[in-house]
Structures are given as C-alpha cells and as structure tokens.
C-alpha cells in the first residue's frame, strides 16, 4: 500500500529539538501503547543522544492488557524506563512524575554535593502527531498549565510549564513526523487513525486489517459481525460476509466495498472491537 506523506516540517522540527536539547535534562518519548514501535520516529535516539529518556505509552486503556504486560517486560529487560498512561483520564501521571524523579535522582544527588541546591528538572516531550502530546502537557501541568515566565538565558520563544516545585516542562514544538519507509508501519498508523484518510487506500487498509484481526483476534471479529469463517476463508470473503451482514450493498446487489471499508476502519478507530494491540515485542526480536 503506497502512502503518500509530505510533512514539510521535519527539518524545522529537528532543528528546534536540537537547539533546545542543551536546556533539557530528560526526554519523554510519547508513543501509542497499541503500536509502541510504529508510533515512534526512528530518529529520536539519534537526536537525543546521551540524554536520559523515559518511554511513555499513552492510550494504554485502548490496548490489549495482555500485550501491555509483554511490553512492560520488554522494557524492563532492556533497562529502559517506561510508564503506561491514559492522558485523557489522567491515569499514570503520578507514576510518570515519580519516574522522572527516580531517573534523575543520581544527577540531582550529585548536583547537591556540588552545592547546586533546589535545582529543577527540565523535561521535553517528543512524539509523532496524534499520539497525545498536547493532552499529556495539559494533564501533567494541571492548574499550572499556564506558562511560567522566561528563564534567564533562554530565548523568549521558549516557555516553561511548572509540573511541580522541582519539575519544569519545555513547551516547544516537540513533534517528529513518522516515516513510511515500511508499509506495515503506515498501515498500523492508518488503523488507529493517526494519518489522514486522503493519503492511503482505505479499501486496501481495511482488507489488511481483516487479515490481522482474523489471525490475532478471531473471536472479536466473529463476535462483532456475527460471521463464520475458518482458515480456508479468504480475507476478501470475510469482507463480503461483513458487507452482507450489514447490508452494505450497491445497486444491483453488488458489495459496496467503499462503504464496507469505511465502516470497518471507523469501528476499529472508535474501539468498537474492544481493547486491541497491533504489535508486540516478539515481532521486534
């Protein structure tokens, strides 16, 4: 599936991030818990260099709880600090603040010994579009989301949000655009609604989504549409069954694939199927 994507802002965003990293103690990389790999930009690690980093998995309430456990173990094994959150409901925010302090504790202790008392931790959030950056900033800032005054030595365009007495969040463009070199990454982003419908073939995306669901979540596919299928049923035949069940027919009784695809894609985005994840750690081995 050919996804056409011309962000135009990538170079500017990378430059802004590079310019502001010198002000930052720790980077918060925000990803979608349903696709932790596909929802990150592969250039993040190269950009942040040796900066400390916490991976924050947002929308954890929409992901498969069992797959979340696998990712939890994956990050533990890799020695990568992580936190699962639901930014809209505010779940995991306290844990994120505690994790920031935990990761930075050795640095803060060292600075105290050097006489740097009451030093504040400065954070930057990075994430691709639609992963929840703005929501996280508003949630983690709470009543303090109103920006603080400029910090001496920092350009006027940089504003800071006071998270707590010892944590500041730099509110600067921290969004990196995804890359679609890999067709599968583009598909997963399309499934969760992170890219515009105008830049991909919805019918092809819906057909491949059916293929994924029949392998990973056959019971959910069956229960949602009340259709029967087995290993010999093709993905297209399943789509036909869904269309017939929902009476999505064109003139002459032909299958209306456009409407059927739109319905399937909309239902997966609205989480009508329940909690679903689209990738898990074993795929990355």
Automatic annotation (TrEMBL):
Top-level taxon of origin: Bacteria
GO BP annotations, alphabetical order: translation
Cell compartments where the protein resides: Cytoplasm
Cellular component aspect of the GO annotation: cytoplasm
KW tRNA-binding (keyword) present: no
InterPro entries the UniProt entry points to: G_CP_dom, GTP-bd, GTP-bd_ortho_bundle_sf, GTP-bd_ribosome_bgen, GTPase_MTG1, P-loop_NTPase
Entries under Pfam families matching the protein: MMR_HSR1
Domain CP-type G: 11-178
Chain positions recorded as GTP binding sites: 58-61, 130-135, 174
Signal peptide: none
Predominant place of localization: cytoplasm
Keywords: Cytoplasm, GTP-binding, Nucleotide-binding
GO molecular function: GTP binding; GTPase activity
Family the UniProt entry places it in: Belongs to the TRAFAC class YlqF/YawG GTPase family. MTG1 subfamily.
Its job: Required for a late step of 50S ribosomal subunit assembly. Has GTPase activity.
Protein's UniProt name: Ribosome biogenesis GTPase A
